[in-house]
């Protein structure tokens, strides 16, 4: 079955393309590579032993219709294509509103026109803000988003809810991701940080590789056991498998629309650094700095619903994720 994957050359998108192909689907990538590079496509080819169908077009543009015309037998779409840097979204909200919302509405419009019903959307735990009660379940209230990026995720979720309310012929699953880390076991694809990394793990691997002098831990005075922030870090391969499970759920007529995709375990920033050092036998140069504005103190997921309904559960641990992230950094070092 053919599945359209917008942002399929990106971090989570590329890993999902691998899992789709392994499960017997034919992924079709739509990605203009503005947030990715050729290395991801060549990595996919080396993992899968064949070239994956790729359209270098903007998901927010009218050109997207060509994919629907070329493939009248599309069985569904997984929508990743979006900007995702929280800090940048505060500086450039129009860039985020324009791209993230337009790409989503454009794709959904075409799905309705061509009667492609199965839709899996990459949402984020950012829609919960700082929750009052942990872990968060899918019924935890969505707080006002803390950034324009987060707001675009809420709006894209709302668009789906509004379409369903209006009786649209759509069968959606919104996956609320926690913090994806790690890379494919082959080290042929992984997270490409273009410029200075925003996220913790690419900053860690670049510091370990000597590309950055030191890492700053953003605050050790939070109300957590070691004072640093807590997140639910999930291996990107596990997260990729959740998308395949979501498609299979839709094919069986599943009706629940929102699922958390995490591990159910919270880890602090300092735990991540110590685990990285231990499993890779590397000493990291880091210092404690001030809090980063906009950071929430702690969040982790309750994943009972996704396990019950989709039969999906994270299988890989922090150690595997942090080893694979370091191996991917070696691939990048060799390449550039
Ligand atoms: N951190 C540091 N130093 C760094 C980078 C990060 O201490 O150099 C800390 C952050 O303060 C935070 C933790 O590491 O406590 C994780 O930070 P990330 O930037 O890796 O991830 P976030 O939790 O801030 O954001 C991620 C995604 C967003 C998503 C959000 C949902 O980047 O796309 O999770 O919570 F919306």
List the helices and strands and how they pair.
Elements: E1 2-6, H1 11-22, E2 26-30, H2 38-48, E3 54-55, H3 65-70, E4 74-79, H4 86-91, H5 93-113, E5 118-124, H6 148-165, E6 171-177, E7 179-181, H7 200-208, E8 215-218, E9 230-231, E10 233-235, H8 236-251, E11 258-261, E12 267-268, H9 269-280, E13 286-289, H10 304-310, H11 318-335
Parallel strand pairs: 1-2, 1-4, 2-3, 4-5, 5-6, 6-11, 7-10, 8-13
Antiparallel strand pairs: 9-12
Helix pairs in contact: 1-2, 1-8, 5-6, 7-11, 9-11
Bound molecules: uridine-5'-diphosphate-4-deoxy-4-fluoro-alpha-D-galactose.
How would you concisely characterize the structure shown here?
The protein has helices at 11-22, 38-48, 65-70, 86-91, 93-113, 148-165, 200-208, 236-251, 269-280, 304-310, 318-335; strands spanning 2-6, 26-30, 54-55, 74-79, 118-124, 171-177, 179-181, 215-218, 230-231, 233-235, 258-261, 267-268, 286-289.
Largest sheet: 7 strands, parallel
Mean pLDDT: 97
Small molecules bound in the structure, each named once: uridine-5'-diphosphate-4-deoxy-4-fluoro-alpha-D-galactose
User: So, the CATH homologous superfamily of the domain at 2-184 and 233-263 and 301-315?
Assistant: NAD(P)-binding Rossmann-like Domain
Class inferred from helices and paired strands: alpha/beta
Tell me the β content.
15-25%
Residue stretches low in confidence (pLDDT < 50, at least 5 long) are none
Radius of gyration: 19 Å
User: What is the general shape?
Assistant: globular
Assign the CATH topology of the domain at 2-184 and 233-263 and 301-315. Answer: Rossmann fold
Please give the CATH class of the domain at 2-184 and 233-263 and 301-315: Alpha Beta
> Would you report the number of β strands?
13
Helix content: 40-55%
Widest sheet: strand order? 3-2-1-4-5-6-11
Q: Termini distance?
A: 36 Å
What is the level-2 CATH architecture name of the domain at 2-184 and 233-263 and 301-315? 3-Layer(aba) Sandwich
Question: Could you spell the SSE succession in H and E letters?
Answer: EHEHEHEHHEHEEHEEEHEEHEHH
Number of helical runs?
11
């Amino acid at each position: 079955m053919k599945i359209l994957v917008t942002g399929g050359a990106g971090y989570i998108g590329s890993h999902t393309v691998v899992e789709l192909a392994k499960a017997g689907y034919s992924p079709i990538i739509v990605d203009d590579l503005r947030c990715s590079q050729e290395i991801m496509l060549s990595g996919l080819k080396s993992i899968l032993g064949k070239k994956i169908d790729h359209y270098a077009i903007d998901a927010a543009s009218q050109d997207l219709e060509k994919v629907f015309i070329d493939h009248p037998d599309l069985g569904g779409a997984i929508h990743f294509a979006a900007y995702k840097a929280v800090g940048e979204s505060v500086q450039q909200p129009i860039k985020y509103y324009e791209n993230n919302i337009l790409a989503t509405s454009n794709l959904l419009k075409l799905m309705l026109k061509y009667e492609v019903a199965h839709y899996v959307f990459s949402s984020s735990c950012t829609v919960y803000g700082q929750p009052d009660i942990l872990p968060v379940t899918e019924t935890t209230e969505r707080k006002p988003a803390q950034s324009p990026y987060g707001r675009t995720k809420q709006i894209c979720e709302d668009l789906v809810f509004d379409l369903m309310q209006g009786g649209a012929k759509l069968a959606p699953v919104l996956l609320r991701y926690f913090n994806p880390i790690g890379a494919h076991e082959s080290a042929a694809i992984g997270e490409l940080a273009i410029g200075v990394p925003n996220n913790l793990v690419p900053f860690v691997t670049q510091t370990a590789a000597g590309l950055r002098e030191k890492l700053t831990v953003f605050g050790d005075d939070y109300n957590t056991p070691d004072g640093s922030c807590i997140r639910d870090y999930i291996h990107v391969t596990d997260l990729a498998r959740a998308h395949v499970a979501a498609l299979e759920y839709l094919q069986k007529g599943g009706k629940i629309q929102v699922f958390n995709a995490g591990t159910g375990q919270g880890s602090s920033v300092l735990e991540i650094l110590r685990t990285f050092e231990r499993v890779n036998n590397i000493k990291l140069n880091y210092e404690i700095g001030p809090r980063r504005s906009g950071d929430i103190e702690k969040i982790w997921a309750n994943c009972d619903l996704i396990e019950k309904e989709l039969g999906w559960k994270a299988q890989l641990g922090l150690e595997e994720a942090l080893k694979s992230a370091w191996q991917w950094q070696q691939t990048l070092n060799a390449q550039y």
